[in-house]
Amino acid sequence: MAALIDIVEITKDYGRFRALDCVSLQVESGITGLLGPNGAGKTTLIKVLLGLVKTSSGRGRLLNYELGSQYREIRANVGYMPEDDCFLHGMTGVECVQFVAQLSRIPEIEALRRSHEILDFCGLAQERYRTVETYSTGMRQKLRFAQAIVHDPPVLILDEPTSGLDPEERVIMLNRIRVLARDHGKAVLICTHILPDVQSISDSVVILARGRVQVAERLSELSRPAEPALEVRLLGSPERFTDVIRGSGVPIESRSDGTLVLRGAPEELATQAWQVAEQVGVGVRSLTASRNSLEEIFLNAVREGGKP
Amino acid sequence: MMDGLLGDDVVMAELDSDANTDGRGVNRLGYRGWSGRLESGWARWTVISSVGIRRAWQSRWLRRMLFFAWLPAVVFGIGFFVWEQAALYPDWQRPGMNFLGGLLPPHVANEIGESIRKGDLQSSRHTVWASLLQSLFRYPQGVLMVMVIGLIAPPMISQDFRSRAFLLYFSRPLTRGEYLLGKLASVWAYLSLISTLPALALYVLGVLLSPNLSVVSATWDLPLRVMAASVILMLPTSMLALCFSSLTQESRYAGFAWFAIWIMGWFTFGAATTAEAFNAQMTNGRMGRELVLEQSPWTHVSLYHTLGRVQSWVFGLTDFREVWISAAILIAVTVISLAILLRRISAPMRV
Q1: Residue ranges covered by each domain of chain A
Q2: Homologous superfamily of domain range A5-88+146-222
Q3: A123: which chain B residues are within 8 Å (Cβ-Cβ)?
Q4: pLDDT surpassing 60 at residue B343
Q5: Nearest residue of A to residue B27 by CA position?
Q6: Which residue among A172, A184, A199 sits closest to B14, beta carbon to beta carbon?
Q7: What is A225-289's CATH topology?
Q8: Which pLDDT score, from 0 to 100, does residue B10 have?
Q9: Which of A1, A208, A240, B139 gets the highest tally of CB atoms within 10 A of its CB?
């Protein structure tokens, strides 16, 4: 499959400061998490994709449009949700969404109809008739999301889409993003600091540090541990369970949070764990195949990026 | 597990409940793709300008000002009426000239007196109409223009910077030029309401009051001169006002700079020409202040008077050789403002 975003050795300098350093990247359809510490170059990369800043060197394509020279076509096909508040004073929510829909060349009446439809999808009810200055942080977040998707773009670039949302709204927002990617075939690039969000919905992850790509891989590949293992959490005392498992020749270790890690193929160990638990009379709270946590991957990547 | 929580059924259930609880969601259609017909791209700036016009219209002060902006046109309309009556009926000539004397510059009033003596008042129609239109542009509408622009232009770009709305604009297929054109067109719309439209209405009134339609062939150029004078009024002033607006996030600073440049220019001109006239009177005892006003190089420090000089050339009342410096100043103001505007508009993206 052709990559939706394909950039080759892009460098961007702001005076003496190098924000992007020979970044090469291919992003395919699905949801991609763009991670990195502050100052890693995430926002600059987004600006480069949208043609808001010129690159110092390098080239790239987004949806087969040349970065830089075909910025109009790119912006027409990308929905961008900025991290910061951006709205027009004195306008209501629905007027704001209609306005950006019209900027994307949707006719006026259709833009109004479409805005109402999208605001329904985004969960902004009667608040849409209030001026945006009166909106709470969560409402503004939904409004920005509505503005990004109102023209039905095939690619979405979402900068911190869940920041400022309460836990319930956060889950709902992530679900909306999943619906767009899964049911409507949108390619989504999510830029966030909230790692569990990325872990929960992303297919791929790109980690930037100091302007360089440290990791660009499918999440399923990244999560696979170097050595297969099964993580077991028990209800009750684990001592006898541990002894029996160890006695059967399976390496086992205990973590500080009480989780037991059994080394070996998870499918076979799961059956054995159930049998042993029944034998020693303890309950099983959870059995999960061991995965590398995104936090771990992120920290390793950032550490690697910090090395000269 | 998280994957389970975000399973397909749960996703839809949560989105549906989001739409249905507390009566939300008029359409309840979820997300639907859109594949309608797009509008032509060239008109994108009209979206910005129409929003700019609507937002400015929310100001009660602006609405009041627009209402009062037409009152001077009524006075000048009476001027047209009086002159046409004087041209038809000799009884009207003396009172008519008294009234018109207050609206027209002295050299035009002298020209009318000359025509009356020759018994051919009709021959000065073009000059009188052009003078009335120029006076409308230069005096009442010139001042109103300063006030209207001072009310609507300062927040236009500064507020976009303050609320970071530039990301809203420039993440869309929009160029800096289209953005600027949209903003300028909002200002132009209001300026044409207070200058071009009243002037054109006055011309039509003059034609309707005249004895026959042959006056159109004698004065056909005046509507074109009105349009040209409008462009000269609108271009440098709107560019300058938006330039100030783009230099700050605080619209009050932009408004202050706008009014300051007019008021300071006016007072500098007034003080300098008064001193000049006094000096001239002391040396030769002949030169009156009217002549000083017309010829003084101090007009170039006042944007208001610079505009007036170029407009008097547009209406055919002055020779270009006398106003070329003023024209050059207006062109310079326009070009420099445009250059600053284009640079400032893209500035937020560079960081």
Answers
A1: 5-88+146-222, 225-289
A2: P-loop containing nucleotide triphosphate hydrolases (3.40.50.300)
A3: 18-19, 24
A4: yes
A5: A117
A6: A172
A7: Alpha-Beta Plaits (3.30.70)
A8: 36
A9: A208
Spell out the domain ranges in chain B.
Answer: 1-38, 39-350
Residues near A270 by beta carbon (within 8 Å), at least 6 away in sequence: A230, A287
The distance of A251 to chain B (nearest Cα, Å) reads 25
Rounded to an integer, the average pLDDT of A268-296 is: 87
Mean predicted lDDT score pLDDT of chain A: 89
Looking at residue B40, the DSSP 8-state letter turns out to be P
Which residues lie closer than 8 Å to B102 by C-beta, 6 or more apart?
none
Is the Cβ of B11 closer than 8 Å to some Cβ of chain A?
A: yes
Residue B57 to chain A, least CA–CA distance (Å): 11
ipTM of the prediction: 0.79
d(CA A150, CA B39): 15
Chains A and B: how many Cβ contacts under 8 Å?
A: 154
Helix, strand, or coil here: A99?
Answer: helix
Indicate whether A223 pLDDT > 90: no
Q: What is the reported pLDDT for B5? A: 35
Residue B69 tokens, joined: 């902006």
Contacts of A145 in chain B (CB under 8 A): none
What is the reported pLDDT for B297?
81
Nearest to A150 by CA among A86, A217, A80: A80
pLDDT confidence of residue B2: 37
Query: Does B21 touch chain A if contact means CB atoms closer than 8 Å?
Result: no
Calculate what percentage of chain A has a pLDDT beyond 70: 98
Nearest alpha-carbon partner for A105 in A145, A153, A154: A153
**B348: contact with A, CB 8 A cutoff:** no
CB contacts, 8 Å: B169 with chain A: 103
Is this model's pTM higher than 0.90 or not?
A: no
Q: What is the pLDDT of residues B256-271, one digit of tens each?
A: 999 999 999 999 998 9
Assign A197 to helix, strand or coil.
helix
Res B138 pLDDT > 90: no
Asked if the domains A5-88+146-222 and A225-289 are classified in one and the same CATH topology, the answer is no
**The pair of three-digit structure tokens given for residue A108, joined into one six-digit string:** 């006026």
Residues of A in contact with B32 (CB under 8 A): 117
Ramachandran angles phi, psi of A202, nearest 5°: -85, 150
- B183 CB neighbours in chain A (<8 A) are none
pLDDT score for B22: 41
- Looking at per-residue pLDDT, the higher value among B75 and A226 belongs to B75
- Which residues fall within 8 angstroms of residue B214, CB to CB, at 6 or more apart? none
Q: Does B6 score more than 60 pLDDT?
A: no
